[in-house]
Amino acid sequence: MPIIKAAIKHLRQSEKHRKANRLFKEKLKTAIKDIVKLAKDKNKSEYEKRLPEVVSLIDKAAKKNLLHKNNAARKKSALSRFLKA
Could you read off the pLDDT of 14-53 as tens digits, one per residue? Predict the structure, then answer.
């Protein structure tokens, strides 16, 4: 355990950030799973409606450094390819 006051504060902050990041990543992964399931069920109208929401979540994750920008781009590209297929 840290002894220095600033280190104690940093520990509290990092724990808070870790929890928030985990919640966000869970939300993102669930959204991606749901939209992939829609694609496999051939529900095109619902897929088109949900795609911008999921892409927005991916962009936010990349902005927060939860995903690397190339990883985010790859995920968005794969989701848009589902739409064409």
Answer: 999 999 999 999 999 999 999 999 999 988 999 999 999 9
Say if residue 84's pLDDT is above 90. Answer: no
Amino acid, single-letter form, for residue 52: P
Phi-psi region of 65 (alpha: psi -120 to 50; beta: other; left: phi over 0): left
Distance in angstroms (rounded) separating the CA atoms of residues 18 and 14: 6
- The C-alpha atoms of residue 85 and residue 65 are separated, in whole angstroms, by 30
Torsion of Cα atoms, 69 then 75 then 76 then 81, to 10°: 150
DSSP 11-44: HHHHHHHHHHHHHHHHHHHHHHHHHHHHHHTT-H
